[in-house]
Specification:
binds S-adenosylmethionine, alpha/beta
């Protein structure tokens, strides 16, 4: 019997665009709402859910929407802010207030387009926006700041800044034809009427989906998930997550425009520093620092070392550096799988969506290597199944690695 694994776009970020709050901002490596719904389908609403690599908050939001309590960890402050904005219930008077203030801002910004408004220090900014589009965006931003203040954590006005973030990406020359972002050849000159209408359309969409009340509750927290200390005595029943894959895709790269415009980063070196803290980080200094990186945990499963050795021995241009990259990835995931045990309830179940990758022809079997770590760390009932095919040409798949945790 021939068994074909499908690409299943319903399990990716693509399907999320039509699911209310899930569709507010894109992050290409986000997984699909449906995948999380399936994993939660037989879980009762008393269960406490955790996503230790939260990204755009898919798990927390699905869990809260069905009435569960959920926690979400991420290292990126912008994603924490975004997650908490998605989880927040907005009372009717807040939505009304936002509409009035936006109307006020729209009365003012047109006359301020030629002023010296603040613009972010994005490298080669003219590659993203034409100088005229940039002036309009900067003027609109200034008028919005006057009404709502700068974007802040725990702010009921965050949804306005999410609408603005989406506006900047939709008026930019960023192209998403591939898993990593690139640029269109030409930068489009947008008319002011077009930009204003686009902003209002995006805002209407976001305010519309904010009207639906979320039954449960979720909280996004800034936690380095390699070093989970405690969760105020709360114990987790179910973990559903997708950590970064060992494929050198940088989240910072795609999030940069949003993070600059919302002032979560102000200069390039902050992006590199943040990526260095991320598992599998590979942006700027995150790569150059690999050469001086040392392990804090050496008792890793043997298969990790043999995979790394094969990459190192291959004759690729950067084989030595990328061997360290892969070693650090599995080392950091091992630290994570070790430290998360302290917040798991007896009998907790874990589901990790991960992808394999290749380095100079050497297959890195992420699911098998993480399963080995999971086994060494004392989890039980470990299994792995293919969820979908990731790419038409290469043998790249997504797997769901599952396990249970029992104390003692
Ligand atoms: C594949 S994305 C998660 C996507 C998510 N499932 C979604 O639907 O949007 C992985 C996330 O892990 C986060 N991350 C990487 N290293 C981390 C660390 N050390 N601690 C906490 N979060 C981390 C990244 O910032 C990124 O948002």
């Amino acid at each position: 019997m021939i068994f074909t694994v499908q690409q299943r776009s319903d399990y990716t970020f693509k399907a999320n665009r039509s699911f209310g709050r899930h569709g507010w901002l894109r992050l290409t490596p986000a997984y699909g709402v449906k995948l999380v719904e399936n994993l939660l389908s037989s879980v009762d609403t008393e269960a406490i859910i955790l996503d230790p690599f939260s990204g755009t908050a898919t798990t927390g939001l699905v869990a809260a929407e069905r009435g569960n309590q959920a926690f979400a960890f991420d290292i990126n402050p912008f994603l924490i802010w975004l997650g908490n904005a998605k989880y927040r219930n907005c009372p009717e008077d807040c939505l009304l207030n936002i509409r009035e203030k936006v109307w006020q801002a729209l009365q003012e910004y047109k006359s301020q387009v030629d002023r010296d408004n603040w613009t972010p220090q994005i490298f080669n900014i003219e590659r993203w926006w034409s100088s005229y589009t940039l002036k309009i965006l900067a003027s609109l931003r200034t008028a919005l700041v006057k009404q709502f203040g700068e974007p802040e954590e725990n702010d009921e006005y965050s949804i306005v800044w999410i609408a603005f973030s989406r506006l900047i990406i939709e008026t930019s020359s960023a192209a998403f034809n591939h898993i990593s972002m690139s640029f269109n050849e030409l930068v489009t000159h947008h008319k002011i009427e077009y930009i204003e209408k686009l902003f209002l359309d995006i805002l209407a969409l976001i305010l519309g989906s904010s009207e639906k009340t979320i039954a449960g509750n979720a909280k996004a927290l800034k936690v380095d998930t390699r070093n989970i200390v405690s969760l105020d005595n709360i114990k987790i029943n179910k973990v559903i997550t997708s950590p970064p894959y060992p494929n050198r895709i940088s989240y910072i790269r795609e999030l940069r425009p949003y993070m600059y415009w919302t002032k979560f980063i102000n200069e390039a070196k902050e992006a590199g520093e943040l990526d260095w803290l991320a598992v599998g980080g590979t942006w700027g200094i995150a790569t150059s620092r690999l050469n001086s990186w040392t392990m804090v945990e050496e008792a890793l499963p043997e298969k990790i070392f043999s995979t790394v050795k094969n990459i190192k021995m291959s004759d690729g241009k950067n084989s030595e550096l990328l061997a360290i990259y892969v070693l650090k990835y599995f080392h950091d995931m091992h630290l994570h799988l070790s430290s998360i045990r302290s917040i798991l309830e007896n009998g907790a179940e874990l589901h990790y969506i991960v992808g394999n990758s290749t380095f100079y022809g050497n297959m890195v079997d992420t699911a098998a290597l993480l399963s080995d770590s999971i086994s060494v760390l004392g989890y039980s009932n470990i299994r792995s199944e293919i969820v979908r095919k990731r790419n038409c040409n290469k043998a790249l798949y997504e797997y769901c690695v599952s396990a249970s945790w029992s104390e003692g």
